[in-house]
Amino acid sequence: MKFVDEATIDIAAGNGGAGCASFRREKFIPFGGPDGGDGGRGGSIYAVADRNLNTLIDYRYARRHEARNGEAGRGSDQFGAAAEDITLRMPVGTIVRDLETEEIIAELLEPDVPVLLAKGGDGGFGNLHFKSSTNRAPRQKTPGWPGEVKKVKLELRVLADVGLLGQPNAGKSTLIAAVSNARPKIADYPFTTLYPNLGVVRVAPEKSFVIADIPGLIEGAAEGAGLGHQFLRHLQRTRLLLHVVDLAPFNPDVDPVAEAKAIVKELKKYDEELHAKPRWLVLNKLDMVQAEERAERVKDFVKRYKWKGPVFEISALTREGCEPLIRAIYEHVASLQVPPVEDPDVRFDEPVIDPPKAVQETRASRAAKVKAAKAAKEAKSKDKPAERDPRFDPAS
After folding, report:
1. 315: annotated binding-site residue?
2. Do 141 and 127 touch, CB atoms closer than 8 A?
3. Is 45 marked as a binding-site residue?
4. Which positions in this protein are listed as binding GTP (predicted)?
């Protein structure tokens, strides 16, 4: 199947159906009244990511996608039927962009989650909708609303954790074939790889990551040399870049340091954020270097390249040094993954006992409080001896 990662299509949602102005006229029913129904809604257009697709070739030839219009309303209180929606299935990682405004409409990163691209028009109102106590015989009706019409650009960016970067014939395809189940075309001429390849690298049970191989990049790609920059977009979602360098080129006049610097320069021209991503240096084809010369050649390359990051010495053909490389990659990728937030199960939470609230004083409680105070006062007055009237005192 041909790999297509760009397409431009026209989408048109359906128009809403018109409302109906009708009156019920039957024998022996003098006051029939309005019975015109509303129009139906036009069909909308949705996009959904499909994990089984890996190319946009379906949209290279099918350029027009149009939903049906809603049915018009009819008499006898009959509303028009709504039109069916259209769902466009696209590969995971597709970006849908408005061609005129360059605004991103949707980014399909989760499979089977529909995203609205163009909304269908609502149906018009029939005269039944305008009936009221003061408007007994309405003759108003409204047409249906038009659906959205857009011209959109589809751009596919593959979802991968690690991306391979390097000159043609650096051994990128051989490396992805050595560490994963991907089987790209491998040959001894430049630009054998014409489209990105994805491979799943399994480090251990339930431990894996996805690696992406793109066509080689050469100096002058910004001006269109080679395949240009058109495939660099597939590295923008990666978390780590592996800069694969051929340490034993066929032409002895080729300087690997100059080629490596040219790659980084082109990367910076394309996107500053992509240039700032974590990048590791992978020195390949060491099986073609004499064993006693390997250490000296690697040391000379790192010194002249002025590289201070991680360096891995491998041979993708013999798989020498590939095992430590993939384990280091997995540890790096796993450290960047955010652990999922688990929702707590409320069934096993300890019950929270709220402090007792202040009792609101009611009329009955106030009456009981006054009655208790009065009773206490009366009891106190009974215990106290009565005072004598001095007028009846014989001593006076």
Report:
1. yes
2. yes
3. no
4. 191-195, 213-216, 284-287, 315-317
State the DSSP code for 140.
-
330 is annotated as contributing to ligand binding: no
216 among the known binding-site residues? Answer: yes
Counted residue by residue, the chain has a size of 396
Tokens at residue 371, please?
């009655």
User: Please, where in the chain does CATH 2.70.210.12 lie?
Assistant: 1-131+138-156
Residues 242-293: pLDDT tens digits? 888 888 877 777 788 888 888 888 888 877 888 888 888 888 888 888 888 8
Round to whole Å and give the CA distance between 196 and 215. 7
Evaluate whether 157 touches 180 at the Cβ level (below 8 Å).
no
Which structure tokens are listed for 74? 């009819």
Q: Which top CATH class is 162-336? A: alpha beta
Residue 284, marked binder: yes
Tell me, yes or no, if the pTM score tops 0.90.
no
Assigned architecture for domain 1-131+138-156: Distorted Sandwich (2.70)
Distance from the Cα of residue 282 to its chain's centroid: 31
